[in-house]
Amino acid sequence: MTTGHGDHDERTELSETQLRVRALETILTEKGYVDPAALDLLIETYEKRIGPRNGARVVARAWTDPEYRAWLLRDANAAIAAVGYAGRQGEHIVVIENTPRRHNMVVCTLCSCYPWPVLGLPPVWYKSAPYRSRAVSDPRGVLRDFGVELPAATEIRVWDSTSEVRYLVLPMRPEGTGGWSEEQLAALVTRDSMIGTGLAVRPGEVP
Question: Could you list the active site residues?
């Protein structure tokens, strides 16, 4: 299990800019300029759909293009930037590949470092203290909570994201998808499968 933290900035969870944004949001809401429900929907859309869709396309390309897969594992930042997904909170991304023998899971034990360009906004549970502590002490139990039961022989490796390095899991390609297009494959890739708390969707299942 990898536990190196690097130099976390405790303020990254709620920076000065984020505090200002929240204050502005409160003022605009109180004056009736912003609908909180609409804002929540926008955030949810970016968290669950728009952001993770970028990562899903990266994964799907890696599944279909061996050269791109090798590049992604060797130099993720360059490979991800080449398909148009780069930006703030996406510096120094490392891609780790799941195999039948090893399952990788990502956590940020000190704050909530997360690869925004490919996964969007971090989910609430990712930032929660219970996940951040249990992912390290009981990763198999956490996976079970997410509905993932792995064979006892499968090693589970936990990677601790930092302000310097953010991790993205390359999930295993589901069986029965030979000949599928990148677009079809991308639909099987979930946000949780790229964090390691889930698996890619199998053909016939509902994402």
Answer: 108, 111-113
